[in-house]
């Protein structure tokens, strides 16, 4: 069957507002709404309008307003920024631990040695990614190293400072099972299998945040594994581990090792205080989430 081509014309922002009003959305300040929609497309806003519609209908719930949807948009934006700031700490820690442990185990160019990895083709692809990331870097230390030495790569502690989190995650994933791989995971109180899965999930969520995509009530397409046990406090496993509550709990778990004095849970509670109408159950939070030791 040949699919039809989409060819609907674009409508003006003023017409977008008229359409939303005809569907029952309340506007307290149309000029302000017009300004917002001139800078944040209606396509981006649609997912924040959806919770205010009658399920299975184009009609909005009684009393639903554009301001409600915009506040939800702002909450999601602040949530992503807060999560990204904590991911940065975790990413830097993992770069450091991987370099320290693997450097002690296999030398400062351990990542160049295919015998340290489970798949030669995957290893070659990772080296290509690292080369591309180095070429894009204008870091003074990298430039100076390349001027002074003939090595393709600087030592691991320097190379991994300019690698993407995705490349870092894949480096860990394809390391051969063994003492060093387990030692990296043990630093965070995890098994290497859980470490690999949780790193993959964090990178996925980081990419969502980097593209400014909706996160708050998203059902994630990557499911982080459930640990049998952890060496540091974790949570009672929720019914749905594809919601943001589970990945935020994973971040909090890592922060116990990386930054034990972190204020992530307190800042999240403060964010909810700023936006009191947020439905945390849509994020996968159970009723008793604040009783969890990890979140106290």
What can you tell me about this protein's structure?
- This protein is mainly α and 296 residues long.
- The protein folds into 2 domains: 11-54, no CATH class; 78-295, no CATH class.
- Helices cover 55% and strands 0% of the residues.
- The residue ranges in which pLDDT falls below 50 over 5 or more consecutive positions are none
| Helicity range | 55-70%
Structural class: mainly alpha
Q: Enumerate how many helices there are, as a single number.
A: 12
Q: How would a crystallographer describe the biggest sheet?
A: none
Rounded to an integer, what's the Rg over CA atoms? 23 Å
> How much strand?
under 5%
Keywords:
2 domains; mainly alpha; 12 helices; 296 residues; 0% strand
Give me a quick take on this structure.
The protein has helices at 13-22, 30-39, 42-49, 66-106, 120-136, 140-148, 156-159, 165-174, 179-187, 192-210, 244-258, 264-274.
Strand and helix layout:
Blueprint: H1 13-22, H2 30-39, H3 42-49, H4 66-106, H5 120-136, H6 140-148, H7 156-159, H8 165-174, H9 179-187, H10 192-210, H11 244-258, H12 264-274
């Amino acid at each position: 069957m040949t699919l039809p081509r989409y060819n609907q014309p674009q409508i003006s922002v003023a017409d977008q507002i008229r359409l939303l009003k005809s569907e029952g959305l309340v506007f307290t300040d149309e000029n302000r709404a017009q300004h917002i929609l001139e800078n944040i497309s209606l396509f981006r806003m649609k997912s924040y309008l959806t919770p205010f519609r009658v399920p299975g209908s184009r009609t909005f719930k009684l009393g639903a307003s554009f301001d409600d949807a915009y506040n939800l948009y702002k909450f999601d934006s602040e949530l992503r920024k807060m999560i990204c700031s904590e991911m940065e700490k975790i990413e830097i820690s993992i770069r450091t631990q991987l370099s320290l442990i693997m450097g002690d185990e296999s030398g400062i160019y351990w990542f160049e040695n295919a015998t340290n990895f489970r798949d030669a083709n995957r290893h070659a692809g990772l080296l290509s990614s690292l080369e591309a990331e180095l070429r894009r870097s204008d870091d003074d230390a990298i430039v100076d190293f390349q001027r002074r030495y003939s090595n393709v790569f600087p030592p691991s502690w320097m190379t991994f400072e300019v690698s993407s989190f995705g490349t870092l995650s894949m480096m860990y994933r394809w390391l051969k099972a063994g003492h060093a791989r387990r030692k990296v995971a043990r630093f965070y109180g995890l098994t290497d299998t859980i470490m690999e899965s949780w790193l993959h999930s964090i990178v996925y969520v980081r990419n969502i945040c980097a593209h400014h995509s909706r996160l708050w009530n998203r059902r994630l397409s990557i499911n982080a594994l459930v640990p049998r046990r952890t060496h540091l406090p974790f949570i009672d496993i929720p019914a749905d581990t594809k919601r943001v509550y589970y990945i935020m709990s994973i971040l909090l778990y890592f922060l116990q090792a990386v930054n034990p004095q972190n204020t992530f849970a307190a800042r999240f509670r403060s964010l909810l205080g700023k936006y009191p109408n947020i439905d945390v159950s849509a994020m996968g939070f159970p009723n008793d989430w604040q009783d969890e030791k990890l979140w106290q």
